Every structure is written in C-alpha cells, then in structure tokens.
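Quick one:
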Amino acid sequence: MIDKLVVDDKTSEPYYKQLIRHIEQMIESGEIVHGLGLPSERDLAKALNLSRTTIKRCYDELRKAGLLNVHGRGGTSVNKPTLANEPLSRLKTFAEEMHAIGRLASTRLEGLEICMDRTIASVFQLPSNASFLRIVRVQLADGMPITREIAWFDLSAAPKLESWNASGSIYAFLQEFCHVTLSWTEQSIEVMLSSDIETKIFGFNQCSPCLLIKRRTYSTESKLIEYVESTFRGDAYAYQSKLGI
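Output:
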C-alpha cells in the first residue's frame, strides 16, 4: 500500500486530501481489502516524508466517512461498507432503505426530458414513435453515490406528466394530477459491470461489478406505467429473501 501512495507537491491540493483520494480509490478498486490493517500514523508519515499531523488528518477524515475503523492498540483497518439488505416481499423507496440502516438519503437529478426510444417502446408494447418522460437520477447515502437510475414513464397513460418539474414525488403527482394509482411491480436482478458513466459516478478506478435492477410498475388496471433500470454499486448493496419450503 505505502509503495502506491504518492503526493504531488506541484498542486495546490493539500497533502491530506491527496492521500484521502488515493486511499478511497484503492478501497473502491479492491487494492486495499476490507479488514486490512493500515500503517500507523507514525510509520506512514515517515515513509512518505510527511508530518504526522497530515496523516492523522487524513485518517480522521476517512474514519468520519466510515471507511476506516479504530481498534485501540490494534491499529486502524478498512471497514466493510454497510450493506442495504432489501427484503424482496415489498418494494421500498431508496430513502426508506437508507433510513433503515441509519444513513441519510439524497438524490441528484441528472436528466429530465421527453423522448422517443424504440427499445423502450417495445418494453411498453407501444408504437415506436411513442413518447416517454425519461428521468436520470443518482441516489446517494451520506453523500456517497449508491445507484444511478434511469426511469421511463408512459405519457400516453399519463399525459400531464409532461408538466412535472421534478419537484416533489412523481408518484404523488401521478395519483393527484394524472389520476393514476400504482398497484404492483415486478423486478429482475442481474450482475453487470459498471458502464463508463457509472464508473465515473461511483468513483471506481475501472469497470466494477454492480447489480442491475429492472423494474416494471403497473397501475390498478394492470397497465405498465413506469420502467426503471437501476445500477447499484456492488460493494454497498445486497438483497435478501425468505422463502417457504
């Protein structure tokens, strides 16, 4: 690990921030595995020819972010990320899932447009020139990107969605203004590698394993209203199920 940590004295970025960025990248890429003990502040400072104060500030910030753990005299080690364990019996919102594990959820809107898409039209079994509301969002837990979500809504079933401005819940808008009540959903889960966009958003060094969840949501009339593809980072998400025998 020490051999791969370098600092650049030709940039204005503080040394401790450079170290934080490098260590975060090494954790994300798996170069530093969960549970691995890290060098002491004294040893790392000596190896990198930096002050111990700089190393301490780096470690302190990583501890606050939940990436490192202190074991008293046992030193400092890399934490295993808290997993969101989602039972398969009921669909929960991302905010509900994060609240259940004590993390603060937030959403960043990446795109909102009216579009036509032949592939998506076939999913909805609509003509190729059908129009959809396409929403791209990144969902975060305590400021860390967890999932990138792309959702399509059938505008022929809910034309007033064209005026939705991304303020408030789109499901509440569907019910109140479009008079569409969502009733049930079906979803599938696949393993995939992150795309270039997702790799950048999640801060990976290279394409990494993720979970791709495809969800179809239907109205009380069993009409497909929403189709979603969500890519979840594989190191911070898990699903569990309880099955009868």
